DNA sequence: ACAAAAGTGTTCTAGTTACACCCATGA
DNA sequence: TCATGGGTGTAACTAGAACACTTTTGT
């Protein structure tokens, strides 16, 4: 190995994931109580292994703790304050993830205590995980305003009122349902299904599904997605 | 140290900066030829030291190589493919920086060969630095569309035509000067100075300067900043 | 007086907002 | 039949796009 490399100090590299879910009413984050600090809630996290990329590591850790695969996962920010982990200096790369809460299997996390918390009512968090969450919420709002990523938090089939509730929850406001549905439908990203949702309202709302073809194709070209 | 930590492998952590500058005509990036790979152009980079945060390290490295302080520096993305550096596994956190090209002192980089390249005419780059640059350009476009960060690339005093040329260069297009100046001035972020630029055109264009007070205040609240 | 860049105004269009009533259905 | 949530239309306003002529001044 070259001198230039030998002189350098290595550091532990961790991955932490902010996992967003939506239960139909409010926007939630999945937190766990784990190892070192059993008394404090923290994000789901783990260590980078020698044979994997950062994204692969985040994805693996998410799978190990939740059983979920094929979820929306995006790098958020690297955190590296010298003392962010008081035991050993660790650089943590935070990811944020959007999951379909119904697909999450709570048995998987096994020895961990895991719980979904409303983003408006979070407990104190380990290390700088609170900063990570704050940034993730900001990023979600920023991003969801311009790209229709909200679908990632809903089931395959969903209704317009459900989607509106999700956006209401993300922005902690109430959008106008007429403008909302007009704007959403004008993207032409939704396919109306013949079935209606039963049981929730008397009339029942039509189910829609995402035109995944178009969705992935245009995913990068959106601006100004929030309705009034 | 706890077992959980001991079992983990540490990695080298590097910082690499994509440094944007604008010479009045085209948008440029500062590249160097350095140590290991003397034949290949690369981004300015260095190693994370034990006592500094990621941002501090990026800032220090930028200073050491360019003499610049107080520049716009923003974290871009962490890159961690297992073999991105074929010699030793290294995680690199990329930053992007906007500097006033006139302030850059080429003598500082000393033993390094350093050169400004047009973003539309870049040489092959070391490791995954090409990916970093691509992402940085994308981010600059995305960001400059919504936040008036363009000022960071110009001198204290600048003219509207200069600012338009900068935006033309960023987006590789030509904006309409009437719409451009209307939109820029409508932000109320510019203060018109009594002096005119001499020597470039016969008539001379008025200088403006940024109302830094307002600028920093509203920096986070901009959307839809690109004129037609 | 002319060349070269600076500066400025208007019309048209498209998108956003605000707002209220009828519909379908199960109980 | 009535209560509940689902679904839709229109008018006013605002922002963006397209477009051309006049002004200043050094040579």
Automatic annotation (TrEMBL), chains A, B:
Domain of life from the UniProt record: Bacteria
Domain Nudix hydrolase: 10-140
SUPFAM superfamilies per UniProt: Nudix, Winged helix' DNA-binding domain
InterPro entries, alphabetized: NUDIX_hydrolase-like_dom_sf, NUDIX_hydrolase_dom, WH-like_DNA-bd_sf, WH_DNA-bd_sf, WHD_NrtR
Protein name: NUDIX domain-containing protein
């Amino acid at each position: 190995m070259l001198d230039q490399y030998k002189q350098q100090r290595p550091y532990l590299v961790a991955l932490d994931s902010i996992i967003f879910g939506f239960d139909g009413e409010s926007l939630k984050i999945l937190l766990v109580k784990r190892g070192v600090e059993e008394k404090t809630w923290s994000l789901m996290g783990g260590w980078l292994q020698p044979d994997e990329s950062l994204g692969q590591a985040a994805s693996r850790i998410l799978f190990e703790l939740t059983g979920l695969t094929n979820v929306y996962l995006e790098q958020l920010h690297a955190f590296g304050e010298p003392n962010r982990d008081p035991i050993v200096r660790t650089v943590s790369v935070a990811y944020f993830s959007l999951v379909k809460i119904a697909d999450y299997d709570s048995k998987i996390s096994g020895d961990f205590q895991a719980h979904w918390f409303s983003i408006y009512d979070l407990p104190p968090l380990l290390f700088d995980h609170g900063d990570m969450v704050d940034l993730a919420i900001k990023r979600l709002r920023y991003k969801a305003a311009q790209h229709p990523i909200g679908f990632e938090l809903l089931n395959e089939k969903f209704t317009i009122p459900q989607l509106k509730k999700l956006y209401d929850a993300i922005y902690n406001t109430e959008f106008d349902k007429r403008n909302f549905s007009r704007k959403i439908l004008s993207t032409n990203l939704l396919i109306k299904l013949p079935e209606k949702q039963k049981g929730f309202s008397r009339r029942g709302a039509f189910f829609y599904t995402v035109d995944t073809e178009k969705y992935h194709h245009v995913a990068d070209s959106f601006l100004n997605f929030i309705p009034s």
